[in-house]
Amino acid sequence: MEIDQFRLACMRILNEVEKVIVGKRPFLERVLSAFLAEGHVLIEDFPGLAKTLTARCFASVLGLAFKRIQFTPDLLPADVTGGYILDRRNGSFELVKGPLFANIILGDEINRAPPKTQAAMLEAMEERQVTLEGETLSLPRPFFVMATQNPIEYEGTFPLPEAQLDRFMVRLSIGYPTPEGEQEILERRMRRAADSASLSTVTNPQEIQQMTAVIEEVLVDDDVKRYMVSLVHATRTAPELAVGASPRASLALLKLSRIRAAMLGRRYVLPDDVKDVAFDVLVHRLMLKPDLWGTGHSALGVTKSILGTVEVPKVEVP
Asked: Which CATH number fits domain 3-77+103-201: 3.40.50.300, 3.40.50.720, 3.40.50.920, 3.30.450.40?
């Protein structure tokens, strides 16, 4: 597969998803980028903005298995990983796989799960495996988690620890549609004469594997790599922050900037590609110092400041 074929494949996938998700192309591009980068996405936004629908649409268009997990305070690790159940017919234990054994997982309101269940999710997200009764079982590939958090109603929730937030490649929000976009949603619903919309599968696992291979061919200049490292290092020395970004953030910048370049039909990464993905990669990994809470400072503001002060390299186009 060539870069132009990669770009056309991405357009084909996004165009099909946009038949249902209206007016959110930049958001959909970021979700697809995280999927191709073998990362995970944390979506933090209000109810009713098509978070679940987005995951279902991508699974349908990509031709992959989809499972939804509704996280609740009484959810146990076995409820997501599965376990061994006694089969009374033959007296042996049979493995019953949980919803994690799918390609695309939607973890709805993940911060409502207790820490023990979140720990099971953490192993699955990082290692692409689960451990049951001392046995390690590999999860299907590709394996992609889209988790949601509600920015309101924090009562009865278990805030995600920094270690688990770091497992998410990006944190995104969808936002409300424009009035024109919302009217288009109503028009499409009337034309369908049904609540659900059918989407076509426009790719397959083999083509997805070819697409991920193409990403490795995108060139990254040494100065651009230093720029990525400088951005991440600046979060560790910022006086407002108690915790900066980990090396996972540098790797995420590398992967996502290469994918953005390929989506635009380029075989090389520009500093603008890095800046475009930096907010989504960095903000959720940063923690303000406690004495600055409630003072108007924010991780978003610190990230903007870093992007405005770190010198942008001049790169010669190959």
From this structure: 3.40.50.300
